[in-house]
Amino acid sequence: MRSIAIINQKGGSGKTTTTVNLAAALGERKRRVLVVDMDPQGSTSLWFGIRNGGKGLRKVFTEGENMVHFVQKTDVPNVEIVASSQWLAGVEKALSGQPGAEIILQREFEDSISQGPWDYVLMDCSPSLGILTINALAAANEILVPVEAHVLALYGFTHLLQVVGMIQERLNPSLEISGILACRVNERNRLTKDVVEKLRKHFGQIVFNTMIRENIRLAEAPSFGLPITQYDTSSIGAADYRSLAKEVIKQEKKEE
Length: 256
What we know:
Blueprint: E1 2-6, H1 15-28, E2 33-37, H2 43-47, H3 56-62, E3 71-73, E4 79-82, H4 91-95, H5 104-111, E5 120-124, H6 131-139, E6 142-148, H7 157-170, E7 176-185, H8 190-203, E8 207-213, H9 216-220, H10 228-231, H11 236-255
Parallel strand pairs: 1-5, 1-6, 2-4, 2-5, 6-7, 7-8
Antiparallel strand pairs: 3-4
């Protein structure tokens, strides 16, 4: 099982879009995917049609409940979800100062989630680097970083890498960056292309070959509660996320 935290400190970078549509594209390829919505805003849950995620995930953190009990089916083939809600926002305060608060999710993964039927666990992280995000990074094997193809989006990236280094040193030595994904790419815009070229120059092979191009149909999909692969299966957005899923799967062959 691969557990991947999808993270970027900058809002609007494409985290939720990538979580939902990568999950759907992997599901199309017969991979079983568990999505864990770690953002109290619950945007990923809403996209999957879950308007009230309840207190389940909060109980995992504050009452020691087993996360498996809160797994829900979605209408997307081979994709299940542990939904979020605004109840999750209180976790930061509830866990403040508690010893071991940073590794609650890590223990949960070791004890139950890793024994489940899933090929992938994708965690949509909050933009803030609070206790929830740190838990996700401590539990994950990998991180995937969606980066908006805009020059300002690169400035916070160095700090994110420093945080990842700290997590590797203190909580999760096996954590690695599986890929950087350029999002909202406008191929007709020279500045956008320059940002992508800078990413490739500085980070080399960990930048995915796939780029997520700007696409109206992709922007419309959340309003209809469907991943792009179902909302408009022949769209550019669907093609891009299918390409990303193919790359993600191909990474496993390199590890063998």
